[in-house]
Amino acid sequence: MNRPRTGIQLLAGAIALTSLTAACGLKPDATATLKTGAGAAAAAASNGLAPGAPGSTSTAPGAPGVTGNAPGGTVAGGPSGSVPGGTVAGGSNNGGTTNGGTVAPASGGACGVPHNGTTTGITASTLNIGLHAPLTGTGTPFPNSSFQAGAQTFWNQPGHTVCGRKVHVEFRDDTYTPSGATSVCNDMAGKDFMVVGGGGTDQIQACATAPKIQQLGVPYLSPGVTDNGLTGLSNYFALSLSYAQQGSLVLRNAKQQGIANPSPSQVDSDNISGQKAVWAVVTANTKNFEGARNGIEQALTAAHIPYKDYKVDQNGDYKSAATQFGSQLAINGFKTIFVDAAPGYFVFMSGGYYGASSVNTANWVGPGVTYTEVTVAQYICTGSKNQISGHAWFLSPAPGLDHASAAFKNAYSNKYDDIEWALWGLSETLWNLLNKANANLTRQNFIASTEHTALPAGSVYPPLDYAHHGGHFGGTGAWVQRVNCGETEPNQNQNGGWDTVGNTYLRQF
Amino acid sequence: MHESVLAASSFSVQLNLLSPLINGIANGAAYGLLGLGLVLLYKSNRIFNFAQGEFATIGAIATYVFYAGTGVLPKLPFFLAALIGLIASVGVAVLTERLVIRPMFDRAKVILVVGTVGVALLLIGVEGLLPYPKTQALPSISDVFRVRPFVTRIDQVPVLDQDVAMVLMLAVLAVGAFVFFRYTRTGTAILAVSQDATAARVVGISVERISMISWAIAGLLGGVAGILLAVPPAGSVTPGAFTGTTLTVAFAAAVLGGMTSLPGAFVGGILLGLIEAFANSDASFVPLLSRVQNGQAELAVFLVLLVVLMFRPRGLLGQEA
Predict the structure, then answer these.
(1) Fewer CB under 10 Å: which end of chain A, C or N?
(2) Contact list, A144 vs chain B (CB under 8 Å)
């Protein structure tokens, strides 16, 4: 008769331990479905035809053998041309096998022989890029195989080489955990020329600061998310605006759409005494989201718009808490809600809002990147019974699929989604940056080159300018996307997607 | 910068009492529905079934694909689709018993528990491979009957049809299961097998048959839970959704109520839902709690669980089987 009691006590102990660790802010991976996140890159993509972009798909760097002509026509060049032409063969460590010899020049400048630096991941004919993103694991917010499926597609297109080198993308599943990201990034640091983060703020941060990434000076690039812990890293490059930088753009878009000054809620504001809050500012209660919070709150205060600040806990199982919180936002009468937290939190919160009120119609706004993934649209449409359609506006480094270029569609044989579109834009940007440094493709020179580079708009991303913004956070603008519960993306079998708002991105710089 | 998680700096009946009360009962019913199946299998087999969440998911998925007419499947009326969903849940549970539990029946219980973890992971993987829209949800009661989504509003806080249905279903199932174990021969046989399988076999009870019946009932309870929980605003037919977000809390609810008590699953579930809801609601009117921003719900659950187990180790309603 004692065994049952022992079993119960063991189970109780396990549950208590789980509760305690969750309460202490530790995140047991196993409880993390639809958890964290903010993430990342996926949605980054987008498509071409950025207004004003010099050319669309043809803005890509020229094919090997072409000299001169910066990609797409622009801008402040990096040190590519300033590096002495090469004589040194091979790289300095970790398996670099560059074997000297001249390489056909690319459009960022004459192709040179890599020298005086690390050439891990480069040979005379190949260049390896590491890419990590969430694919599996209980922590993955929205399992989607498109990261893996689309990783190589851009580089398989004719002419998409770097000084004649075929680019190979090594995709690794980071399981949506910082420890998983650290593990795969430490591994990729020893094999790949550069590493790129595809999704997840926490994972991007963990990878950028992974021991081997830092020790070996591996260039690490990702769409802009948080700046917490990434500012000051010499090897980190944000490929789009950070959360903090997007705050004023979120407000600008809200003004343009006429949703910046709805009727006030029943709650006292935090920034203007004696007034009721008009906006609810909902952010995850971690350091990674401080930038987003400060960015929008400074913009609202400058515009004399009263807001109420809500920091939400997304540790552990937050499903019931998020749903309950959403219903209370509705009861409090909020009509414009800024949100930057785990995508899953947004899904449950918005569901709770519409579950509590079929009368109130909120407009949800916030920065990019992950929220504009198609899977987020599908979940919020389902959770709100489509009431949210047309009322969620989020920024993104990329426009929606309605701007997808013909080259992209052809490459994917007309079966694509916005994650693949994001990867297309990400890859195109990497291509341009690599070609800027092609006179001496070492890790050290790539970092130095990128710090001084400015790129025009590509076929997907807005212009990038590291040269005039401190060298590492190069985003200059963002696209606006609006949820549409009535559409279905080409390779999806369920409704929900995002439409581009307007024909141009919002410029920050 | 305000530090509270939810609004209000003074006590609000609406936000600090009614809203968490109604939300807590609704969430607690969800925990209780899953907890019922856990208690049943613990009561009958003495194992913790980590696959219970996936029995629920399978039921929800099967219901969805037949209700929506996914792919080549016919589009069926909701209740017919739900019946297929329940059959699917029972089928998976019976298969689990035949292929995993029964071959290892004489092994240590911990091995069987690990076996159920394996079943859960396998089912999540299989569900991920199935070609159906994974972000969708089942229709709620109000959608099925085409009525307004809430029974009433109390000071603006809606009492949803779906939540009322869940609480009623939970009560009916808990009482029904209690009656089953107390007053039927099969129920008594299940208890006899759980206490001493050899002795039960000696008096003519088929242990294998009883085991299969127990798992079939657990599958049925899981299916009911899945069909009621996979609805908007927070539910969906996503693979692993119940295992990832609800099962752990359901375990805690079952322990709180008493792992050997079916009505205890009801009580434990509702109690846990209320604890979470009140802990998650705004407490800024309480000076000390206004500073708490992280993990208040988990902390509250932990403390209550600790206190209950210290003074009543078998749970609130638990007793020796």
Answers:
(1) N
(2) none
